[in-house]
Amino acid sequence: MLTIHHLNNSRSQRILWFLEELKAESNGTFDYQIKHYQRDAKTMLAPDSLKQIHPLGKSPVITDGDLTIAETGAIVEYLVDTYADKHWRPQRGTQARNDYNYWLHASEGTYMPYMVMKLVFSKITQPPVPFIVRPVTKAVNAQVSKEFLDPNIERGLQHLEQTLDGQDWLLGNELTAADIMMSFPVEGAAVRFGLEKSYPNIHAYMQRFQNRETYKTALEKGGPYQLGL
Ligand SMILES: N[C@@H](CCC(=O)N[C@@H](CS)C(=O)NCC(=O)O)C(=O)O
Predict the structure, then answer these.
(1) Which atom of ligand 1 is nearest to the CA of 43?
(2) By alpha-carbon position, which residue is closest to atom 20 of ligand 1?
(3) Does residue 29 form part of some domain?
(4) Is 14's C-beta closer than 6 angstroms to any atom of ligand 1?
(5) Which of 26, 42, 54, 73 could in theory staple to 30 by disulfide, Cβ–Cβ 3.0 to 4.6 A?
(6) Please, where are the H alpha helices in 66-198?
(7) Are residues 80 and 104 in the same domain?
(8) Number of domains observed in the structure of the chain
């Protein structure tokens, strides 16, 4: 049976959601199991046991028979290829398929790096960085945010906001695996920047997927999730 090696409070949550979607529409033919891993409370890193599954020791990672697959996008592609109905991915050779590929990759390739950098730079302004150097690290953080991170994050969110204008999902009115991929940066953006006022379409989009029964079940199974780590 397919196993998801799930780290609490992580990107793995969206794979759990996708697995719940696949399970719900399979009429009992598809199921999976979860192996839970807990972050170190101090460092927030994954336990070493995850490195026994894949050398990088990151989550998500799945095992399915003899196969081990890491990296969210690669896992989503595998699940679409192996277990999903056609409606999860537009047909080859169409503009919709190019748009789908774009969002599938933009999630980890464009949206997440800026957000992770934002998180990392905010950390250099706080303990354990010594009090005496914090005025300097705060100035560095402020400058990098102003000149580089904030404009890129804003541009990304505006692009997403425009894409979602007048449609429920990224590709139109059908939920696809691209939405599964983009759910994590959307949740991260909601926690860090708030979306309701400046990005109403993204906010409504997030509510739309968070209200799905499959999403709620995945949340229960995954354990506490503070979003956006
Ligand atoms: N681009 C990778 C990122 C994987 C990643 O960094 N996962 C985080 C969880 S959100 C992790 O495992 N962190 C724990 C650690 O680095 O020890 C993916 O999408 O799978």
Answers:
(1) 17
(2) 71
(3) yes
(4) no
(5) 26
(6) 72-83, 95-106, 112-123, 134-144, 150-163, 177-193
(7) no
(8) 2
